[in-house]
Amino acid sequence: MELLYELGPAEPRVRRLGEADPQLARLARLIGPLTVSKPDNAFAFLAKSLIGQQLSVKAAATICGRVGQLCGELAPEAILAVSDEALRG
Questions:
Q1: pLDDT 10s digits, 19-74
Q2: Is the pLDDT of residue 2 over 90?
Q3: DSSP letter string over 21-52?
Q4: How far apart (Å, rounded) are the C-alpha atoms in residues 89 and 85?
Q5: Which of 15, 34, 42, 70 has the fewest C-beta atoms under 10 angstroms from its C-beta?
Q6: What residues contact residue 84 under an 8 Å CB cut-off, 6+ apart?
């Protein structure tokens, strides 16, 4: 998977936050760089993130699974091909 970005203690934005909050600076040094990989399916990643922010993890997983079964995949074209009534179900 391709790397989307990496944030580490030396990154200017992290350093500025650390100057405002010494505990955050300490944690950034202890944890080290945070790497975020580019998802294979950006739409599915976004959809799951939005659902997960609104609900419990278990409920979000259930909804993602049901939509995946109904549509075949989490992709814009697949979701648009399903009726609103079916999605509400």
A1: 999 999 999 999 999 888 888 888 998 888 888 887 788 888 888 899 999 999 88
A2: no
A3: -HHHHHHHHHH--EEEEPPSSHHHHHHHHHHH
A4: 6
A5: 42
A6: none
Could you give the CA distance from residue 16 to residue 6 in angstroms, rounded to a whole number? 16
Q: Rounded distance, CA 52 to CA 65, Å?
A: 12
CA 10 from centroid of its chain's CA atoms: 24
Q: Quote the CA–CA distance of 72 and 46 in Å, as a whole number.
A: 17
Query: H/E element holding 9?
Result: none
Beta bridge partners of 48: none
If one counts every other C-beta atom within 10 angstroms of the C-beta of residue 48, the result is 19
Please say whether the beta carbons of 53 and 47 come within 8 A.
no
Find the radius of gyration of the CA atoms of the chain.
Answer: 19
> Model-level pTM greater than 0.70?
no
